[in-house]
Amino acid sequence: MTELEFRELSAVRALHALSPDEEQAFSQALAAHPEWQRIVDEDRATAAELSAVAAPVAPPPAARAAILDAIATTPQFEEPPLWGESRPAPRQVPPPSRPAAARIPELEELDADEYADEQTQTSRSRRSVGWLLVAGMVAVLLAVSFSFPLSGLLTPRDPVVVALDAVASAPDAETSTVRIAGAGSATLHWSDSVGQAVLLADGLPQLDADRDFELWIVRDSQPVSLGVVRPDAEQNAAVLAAGFRPGDAVAVTVEERGGSPTRLPTTDPILAIATPAADPEAGGIGT
């Protein structure tokens, strides 16, 4: 992985948006290049500053309807035919006639080939304008997404809910509940056959503004960060333990805002839930 590729992953990770595979690639690259830790620190600091100064913005009531109307009314542009596909030739439209008094001698001298070239350039210009309109619409959607969440419009279901449903319906679904030090409780739901684990925390303790909860998977005594966990207004949280394998322990620690700068826990966990290793005879994913 090049430093440029790592910078792209680091920026996305600061926003807690890496997939499990990307998180693993990120960790491996950082382990191979510890000097890149400065990049991680800079991105984490930037994300923390943005989250601290950006006040929540309530979406306008008509915003969603306006976006859908804009998408519905945007002209769709015809793509080139697939390999081997035939399409009828476009209808030849003769050039518009001009009033005699408005004719320009230089234009009258254009032959058929020159006119065809002119028409081709006009068509290309129109296509360019069309693509610019599409790009503009994408830019508007991206800009709006920073003002209010589009998850209800673009994401049919929360991945945490999907995973929890899959685990709950599995024949080997298991749960384990522990008390949170000085607060509520947490329950881990997992399934060896599904290969998913979801942590539901009820009543996490209040933290200072310069602190965050961080989720970890501990495998063979080696902790792997799954990112920062920010609870809702009632101090509850539902998080997916991405990359879970039977036998892993899932833990939560309190770290500085943005997560541990060393990518290792700096405090004792406020909760930790161990899971048994998969039974080889049961055909679990940990075999």
Give the arrangement of secondary structure elements.
Blueprint: H1 3-14, H2 20-32, H3 37-53, H4 63-73, H5 105-108, H6 112-145, H7 151-154, H8 159-168, E1 174-179, E2 185-191, E3 196-202, E4 211-219, E5 222-229, E6 236-240, E7 249-256, E8 271-274
Antiparallel strand pairs: 1-2, 2-3, 3-6, 4-5, 4-7, 7-8
Helix pairs in contact: 1-2, 1-3
Task: Kindly describe this structure.
This protein has about 290 residues and is α+β, with helices and mostly antiparallel strands. It is built from eight helices and eight strands; from the N terminus they run ααααααααββββββββ. It has helices spanning about 5-15, 20-30, 35-55, 65-75, 105-110, 110-145, 150-155, 160-170, and strands at about 175-180, 185-190, 195-200, 210-220, 220-230, 235-240, 250-255, 270-275. Strands 1-2-3-6 form a four-stranded antiparallel beta sheet, covered by helices on one side. β2 (about 185-190) and β3 (about 195-200) form a beta hairpin. α1 (about 5-15) crosses α2 (about 20-30) and α1 packs parallel to α3. Pfam families: RskA_C (PF10099).
Report a brief summary of the structure.
By secondary structure, the protein is an alpha+beta fold. It contains eight helices and eight strands. Strand 1 (174-179) and strand 2 form a beta hairpin.
Secondary-structure element order, N to C: HHHHHHHHEEEEEEEE
- What share of the residues lie within helices? 25-40%
Radius of gyration: 28 Å
Query: Stretches where pLDDT falls below 50 for ≥5 residues?
Result: 100-110, 144-156, 283-287
Helix count, DSSP H or I runs of 4 or more residues: 8
User: Alpha-carbon distance between the termini?
Assistant: 30 Å
Q: What's the story with the biggest beta sheet?
A: 4 strands, antiparallel
What overall form do the CA principal axes indicate?
globular
What is the mean predicted local confidence, pLDDT?
74
Supply the helix-strand structural class: alpha+beta
Count all strands and give the number: 8
Strand arrangement across the biggest beta sheet: 1-2-3-6
